[in-house]
Design a protein that fits this description.
With 176 residues, the protein is mainly alpha-helical. It has 2 domains: 1-37, no CATH class; 47-173, no CATH class. The protein contains 8 helices and no strands. It has helices at 32-36, 47-68, 72-76, 81-87, 91-111, 116-142, 153-160, 162-173. The protein is globular, with a radius of gyration of 24 Å.
Length: 176
Amino acid sequence: MARAKDDRRDDGTKYQLAGHTDGISADGLPEPEALADRDEPVEPPSGIRRLARVALGVALVGAGIGHLTFARRDFRAQVPKGVTEVTGFSEDQVVLMSGIAEIGLGGALAVLGRGRRDRRRLGVVAALFFAAVFPGNVAQWVNRRDGFGLDTDDKRALRLLGQPLLIAWALWSTRR
């Protein structure tokens, strides 16, 4: 039952009108809806989602290290010619910058994201990153550039299907 505007608690403070609680219930406790908008999680993510998020983060860090070291040549095969023409960066510079971005994003996914908003934001950023690098995968397929054992059109085309899965993984693993 909603309390009237003039009702007072034992300590003399007024109750707020029902529906205008600003996240505080009549008994003075935060309402669940109000907690949902805070950085602290109302309930922690499920163990499987947390594991998926950390695994994605570790995979991104590994890929980022590959960009900077042992797989640098293969990653150059994915840089669209238009990117180098528009930005003025060489293929190698693009690979190095994307590797640094992957290490940072992967590290954040693996160790940050304690609050629900943080996790969601990281998931959206990861999904956007995967969408942003998708043209590189398309360029590798269209230009028939070998890399990572993708030495046929069929293999390169099949790899394109993996990008939407990565986007879904990023979004799913960072939800509550």
